[in-house]
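Supplementary Methods S3. Complex input for the ribose-5-phosphate-bound model.
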Amino acid sequence: MQSQKTQTVDGNDLKVFSGRANLVLAQQICTHLGLPLAKSRIDDFPDSEIMFKVDEDIRGRDVFIVQPTCEPVNDHLMELLVMLDCVRRASARSITAVIPYFGYARQDQKHEGRTPITAKLVANLITSAGADRVVTMDLHAGQVQGFFDIPLDHLQSQPVFTRYFTQQNLGPLTLVSPDIGNVKVDGQFARRLNADLAIIDKRRISDSEVQACNIIGDVSGRTILMFDDIISTAATICAAANLLKERGAGRIYVGATHAVFCGPAVERLSAAPIEQVVVSDTIPISSDKLAQLPKLKVLSVAGLLAETIKRIHFNLSVSSLFERETT
Ligand code: R5P
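Predicted complex, serialized as C-alpha cells:
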C-alpha cells in the first residue's frame, strides 16, 4: 500500500482543471499532487453565457475537473458541463468530474406527485456532457451513486473529522444524528469515535423550518457531537441543539461535510447553544461568514481528494485507501 502512495505524478500526463466554484480547494489539491493547476480561461460572454478555453495540450491525457455544484448552483453546474464538453472535444484520454459537493442530490425521489427527480437529471447531464467517471463526497443519499451509469467513487469525509475530534480529547462523547436519514453514517462515525449513539426525531415544517420532536437515547450530562451531511439553513442542527439543551445535554459540538450555509444559517448557528461548528472545505465560505461565526472551524479534504485523483490516474484501489484511513 505504501508504494502506491509514493508514486510520483507526471504533470504532463495528469491535468487538473478548476471551475470557478472552489478555486482554492483545486489549488490545494494540486499542491498535494505536486502539480500546477492546468492552464485555462473561464469568462462570461456579455449575455452571461459561459466561455471556457483550455490553454495547453490535453490530447491523450487524464483530465480531472474540480467543481462542486454549490451556490449559485445552476451557474456552477452549467460551467461544469461546458468544461466537460470542452475537454472531451480536445481529445482527453479520460475525464473525471471531481464534484466534492453534489448539488441537487436532495431531490432524489418523487416525494409527491408531479415532481422531478433532479439528482437523476443532473447525473444524466454530467454523463452526456462527457464525464467518464465521477468523484464525489458524502452524497445526501448513497443511492444517488446508482443514478450514474459510469464509475463513481463516493468518498467519506469521516477520516478527516475523526482525526480532528479525536485530537480534541473531548472525553466520552454521545454522537447525535440530527436526521434519521443520516443514521447509518452516524453509526459508523460513533463506532470510530467509540461514542454512544442517539437520534433526533425531526419533522420538517418547510424548506427552512424544522421541529425537533424527540430524542432516542440518553443525552443528559453528556458531551454531544452532532454530525450531518449538510448544513443548509441550519434549521435541523439548531432545532436539535435547542432540544438537546432542554434535555440536559452538556457541551455540544457540530460537524457537517458541506457548509451550504444559505438564508439565516450563520445567524442561527451564532445564536444556538453550540460550542463549535466544524465543516469541510468542499464549499468555499466567504470571509464575511467566517468573520460572523468565530466558532466555525474548517477542515480541508484536499489531501483526500488529491490521493483519490492519484489512485484513479494510476489505476489503484480507491476504497483500500479509504479502509486504511478509516480503520
Ligand atoms: C436532511 O435531509 C439533511 O441531512 C440535512 O439535515 C438537511 O438538508 C439540513 O438542512 P437545513 O440546514 O436547512 O435544516
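Residues 14-156+302-326 form a domain with the Rossmann fold fold (CATH 3.40.50.2020). The pocket of ribose-5-phosphate is lined by residues 178-179, 181-182, 210, 228-236 (CB under 6 Å).
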